[in-house]
Amino acid sequence: MGVSVKMTKVELRNVSNYILKNVSLTVDSGEFLVLLGPNGAGKTTLLNVIAGLTEYSGTVMLDGEPADSLPPHKRNIGYVPQNLALFPHLNAYDNVAYGLRVRGVPRRIINKRVREVMEILGIWGLRYKYPMRLSGGEGQKVAIARALVINPTILLLDEPFNNLQVDIRKSLRLEVREIQRKLGITTIFVTHDIEEAEELGNKVAVMKNGMLIGVGSYVDVLPKISSTIYKLNILKGRICERVDSWLTRMICGDLRLLVPYDGKSGDLNVTIAIPPDRILISRVRPDIAINAFKGKIHEVRDKQHYSEVLVNVNNVILTVYVTREKFESLGLDVNSEVYVKIPIRFIKVLS
Fold first, then answer.
1. Architecture of the domain defined by 233-349
2. By the 8 A CB rule, do 341 and 291 touch?
3. End-to-end distance of the chain based on CA atoms, in angstroms?
4. Alpha carbon 74 to chain centroid distance?
5. Any residues with CB less than 8 A from the CB of 86 and at least 6 apart, and which?
6. How does residue 164 score in pLDDT terms, banded at 50, 70 and 90?
7. Is it true that domain 10-228 has CATH number 1.20.81.30?
8. Which residues pair with 258 in a beta bridge?
9. What pTM did the predictor assign?
10. In terms of Cα–Cα distance, which of 154, 203, 157 is closest to 9?
11. SS3 label, residue 191
12. Where are the domains of the chain?
């Protein structure tokens, strides 16, 4: 096919500018790196540095060679910005073909490459549609096709699914990951969504205030995520009993939990993370008692779109996020007795 499978290693060495502060980062050839952080952390600026679209000090290395003097069009990078930047006066085909045309590629080769990449993304049938007639997901695919058609060795995606419905986002995430695996393109994907980070990244880099504060697997950087963009319940305890090949009983203070753990059994210290929006809360005892506990509401904090409920369960304080609608329907308040249930599949063992 016409889309390149050449891979490029990206290295940033002590990169700084008006937002970034001495950032050093390596993205190996063919790797899928998720760049995670809150708004204003410097994620988009970091992409623009790699693409050569903004000024910086320090060094950007592409396959071991300094790229600082290379203009954007010489860096062989495909870039999907947040706003997609599709040309409204061009149909989907011409939007995808644009980068090849400005490079002076012959029409015959343009036709071949555009068809190939649009068929990979399943949008060849949309080639005559204009952006205003495309759905959100279709527009995203056209933008990705336009980035891929130039045969890039690096693909940069800046929160490409930010404004899409949850089910469409999930579907597109899977498609992008599969395409990246198939083509082997070194990819950096910016998001503030930890679910995207968990599903997509070989490696996750966490940013805050222009600084890189953690790099590693999703599980490795969960404590950093909890301190920056998404508060997690981080509990320390010990493994006390093997239940089966993948399930173990853990003691956190006076709380006894079943956790997914395939390590050694015995009196071992472990740390787990539980997302607050995955803990279920109710007034009645759950039918299935696994990881279900009775507790008392210790504090309620009103947020913009939800309530942050702190529940005392066996002298362990758990943070639970509850929608405003559910909070009101349950009639919750400080000192209300409630039941919480912690689904095993959402518990992450950190160490």
1. Beta Barrel (2.40)
2. yes
3. 43
4. 28
5. 95, 131, 139, 142, 143, 146
6. confident
7. no
8. 249
9. 0.83
10. 154
11. strand
12. 10-228, 233-349
